[in-house]
Structure formats: structure tokens, C-alpha cells
Amino acid sequence: MIERLNHKEEVVAAEILALQIPGYQVEASWIGFDGIPHLHDTVQTIMESGETFFGFLSDGELAGFLSYKEEDGAAFIHRLVVHPGQFHEGIASEMIAYFLEEEAQGRIVKVTTGAQNQAARKLYTKFGFHEVEEYSTEAGLEIVLMEKDQKAEQ
At a CB cut-off of 8 Å and minimum separation 6, what does 153 contact? Predict the structure, then answer.
């Protein structure tokens, strides 16, 4: 079941963080970079993020979440995290499908991921995202910006 999460509540932000850290640790190992900014979040930074969060609940437990912000007229996905013990169960796909249908319909959707994160690139491509740009951060991480124009699909 997918539902909106109130990340401004401390207990909810703590749940998000408890899932986020191990999820991004796996990504860090895949891409060989442990400086992913979300690895350094705190309950407070999540509460103050300004993002909208949706969670995937499995047996009442948070198994994954997606967050986004409105940026320059586009819906920009900031986080997509699945519990490492539940990878390959379709949770990320369900959250993306829900997001595209329920929240981002008729809009441009953007997301960035580590260029070395082939699993994420493949997942977003499956949903019709295309690669727009590849660049390096100041910390030396290679990033790919992907976009899906849902306005063109209407």
C-alpha cells in the first residue's frame, strides 16, 4: 500500500532515515562513492527538506519511499529508497508508477542518479525516462540527469 508520509513528524522522519541510510549505503557500494549527501541526513534535515514523501507499506512497515519537490515547473524526484532486504520485489516500480499517475500526471519529471548505478538507470528507462545530461559534482561523483515529459504523452 502506498500512502503519503508526514515527514515533518519526528517519528516518521526517523523511520524514513532508518530506511534511507542502509538503502544509500548499498548504492554507495555499487557506485564506489560514500559521499552521497543523503547518507549524511539527520531526522532534522528530513523534517526540514521541503519534499513531499510517499511510503510503500508492507505489513504495516515502511519498505520503501519516494520523495519529490516542485522545481522550475517540473516534479523532481529527490529520493527513491527500498529496504535492501526487499530489493527485486517491484516496490520501486510500484512507487514510480504511482507517482507518475497520481502526482506528476501531465508534467515533466526529472531525476538524478549516480552514473554507475545501472539498476536505477535501467529502472527509470523502463518508465520512459531518457538521459538528458551527465556531469560531475564537485566531490567527483558522476551523475546522470534523466527526464520524462508526460505533457508530450497527453
Answer: 128
